[in-house]
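Dear U.,

For the methods section draft, I wanted the exact inputs and outputs in one place so we can describe them consistently. I've listed the two proteins in the order they'll appear in the manuscript figures. Please don't edit the token lines directly; just add comments below if something needs changing.

First protein:
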Amino acid sequence: MVERIELVMVLVGMLAAATLFRKFPKLILDSDGKRARPSVSVIIPARNEARILPLLMTDLRQQKELAFEILCVDDDSEDTTATVARDYGAKVIKASGKPKGWLGKAWACFIGAKAAQGDLLLFLDADVRLREDALGRLVQTQQTLGGTISVQPKHLAEKSYEQLSLIFNLVQIGANGAAMTKPPKIGLYGPVILMERGDYWQVGGHEVVAGDIVEDVALGLKLKEAGLDYQTSSVTMT
């Protein structure tokens, strides 16, 4: 009897998950790739990512809509991260001289943003993978909806223990109310954040979340406090 109840609960949970997944906001298709677009600076904070970085760099090379520039911010890597990034054509910036109170990723993102020249800043984690239309769809979505666009990519795990991190992703997606008509928006998703340069500096950039462990959530809250809108999406672009 207990086994049957558990089976029913699992099936109901799967049905609910499938229903909610269909309600997740989608990135807008790039319907007009010929019109003038804002320039995009890709900023990749990276620490000891020499093994995985070539995958993202290859994806960026194969985009239908290319970035204006790719900046890889090397956060005191002990491997060949900087060399790999440079070999793939990225501009490498050393995230040295981190001030007291700053955490590594926030400092790397801040340094990258200061060096960026594009109209839009696209922060990407080094382990993100992109479809060939991902950049175009991100820009199209931002131009259509305005504000900041943040995506929680589809979670792919090579090893069984890596599946555990999926729990934290689901918690954040749920807390953000991804399937709700009017989501509460409690923060951004760190792996993929696209925002206007002006909005970034208006809230103070990563300097205002320098010591936050979950800096993506904190940055989203800063945008919200400043009255700057943002949109979150899940598993729709990678």
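Second protein (the one for the lower panel):
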Amino acid sequence: MAEKKTARPLKGFYKCPFRECEEEWKDFESLKEHIVETEHGTKDMLVKCPVSMCDGSVECKLHFDWKNTKFLRIMRRLRKTIDSIKNKYYNLTVEELIKERDTIATIIKSFVINGSVTINQEEFFSCRVRGCNKKYKALLGYTYHIAHYRHSLAEMITEYSNINKSEIDELKIKAELADEKYINGFNLVDVEHKYSPKHSFTAPLEFKNDFHNIDPKKDKFISKKKIEYLDVSFVAKYNAPLTENSLIHKLIYKGEVFDSKTAKLAFGMFFYNISEFILSVYFDNQSRNIFVCSKSSKVPDVLYDFKAHPSRIYTFDTNLQLIKTINFDYGAARKIVRSCNLYHFILFKDGKLRKINLNDGSCLEEIHRDGIVDFELLNDDTILCSDGKRLYKIKNNEIIHTSDYLPCAANSIVLKQPDKEIKPFMFTKKQTKHDNSKNLNNKFYVVNDDEENKMLNEIREKLDTYNIYCTTVEGEILAFKEDLTDMISVLYSFTSKLLYFPKFDVFVITDTMNNKSKVLTVNKEFIRTHLFLENNIHCSSVVFNTIVSGGYDGTVYQSYFNYNKVKNTELVKFHRSGSDLLMLDHIDEYAVLSPREGYDYSTLIVDVLEYDHYLFIFLSSGIILKKLIKN
């Protein structure tokens, strides 16, 4: 008699409910940690089958039939669960917070003495929390502030460090708070307000992980106290006229001089000086290595000047530890792109494109084309490149498509490949119907509605399928079909730099003639430009839901968006005096600097990139800075 077989039970898993995320976990606690620590970039969720080998799911938002109300209830419960995980409160008393946390304890005990906070009431009621410095005319305003305002741990730590002229170890603070998730702000609640020398401080500190979602309108303060302790006198010593390009021998920050090759600065910042000029940078997402390409000359790179000379590529890890250095004789590396087979295509100064093994520097293949000025790599290792005269598509080292001759010499190529889920961007409104003065190629003329619909709609429909863009030395932006058989002029301006952001599906262009940077939006609805920054930018990177840009003048900006304006914040500014580099990050320090004519090539921001909440800034003069950045 045949033995009866019993079915093996299917093992269940906790799968991440967010669309496109395929992570699964054996226990619910691991899933909770994943949801809290991962930025999924979407609010769309699915009800997924818990069986590991099954990819079945239900998209509940499409089922508004009464027969499927049970799925809607599941989705509602799922969303509530996710919200409860991501918005969990952590309530700690002062004693619990400072226990075994020496750094945090020292800071809090500087304004919470014997369990109480002393309010100095002269003309205003001032908040005593370090880093806040807000003051109110009425006791009611102060009371509301204490009850509702969520203070920043980062600002508290920064102010305490500045006042005491001491360096705070950011990594040590992270370790002290490692047992909690995303504690970055706190409230003071139930504080007794009495007109006496001491006021009780009996309630716990309330922690929440979404500090940056606080509504500032709910906390209307009169003024913010100026930080009087900040000494900016050292800045004036470096107010010298612009001199010829130079490498950096000393870095000055907050008056302290650093003359070593690498050092740790205050507030969790690090720097590395390679003592060579940097031409380009590439971050490999797979290996997590940073490739820094240096050159031997201090003269700015000239695009159509093809020369072979000794150069180096430095390989760093994300802790700015030097892994290796590889020497080349092809000239400096202008651009690096990773190929599908784990090697890298590198365009060198001699105008040749080569496939290089960056483990040992060996050349695996050389593309049979001279005088290449720029290139991009498609998904299947198909090369898109230009010699300035035409665009070429090359596969297996053979040209498969060639464009017509360009109206003038090309200087860059950009691929328009938006992400699957595009983040909403601020510039989404059409031009009004009453504004019938259209701008095509910066030539203004009045057209009627019929002409507009016929001409503009035709161009927009075409451009929606064109994903290859290039810029010319005359500032024109051209778009091409995938097979390079058609060419459309998108914009004729003074464009010298074209950057594309797949996350937002927009371009950022630099207009060096007018010293402005603009956002260019190209889609089925409109082709429009909007002011982005009153300065020329050389590089940009998407950091969280903002754009961080590096300028020709040595300034790094962070841009925040909403639906009607851009808010630009200066993160850091570099100023060179001879071989000394001044790093500034406060508005009072900027005010001491005297304006200069022209740009200093030594402080040009070559590239900016973000990894693991750190911003990496690369200067032309060989300085690499690693800086914590807020989410």
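Candidate sentences for the figure legend, describing the second protein: Residues 1-11, 62-70, 193-229, 428-448 have pLDDT under 50 and may be disordered. Residues 150 and 187 are 5 Å apart (CA to CA).

Thanks,
Y.
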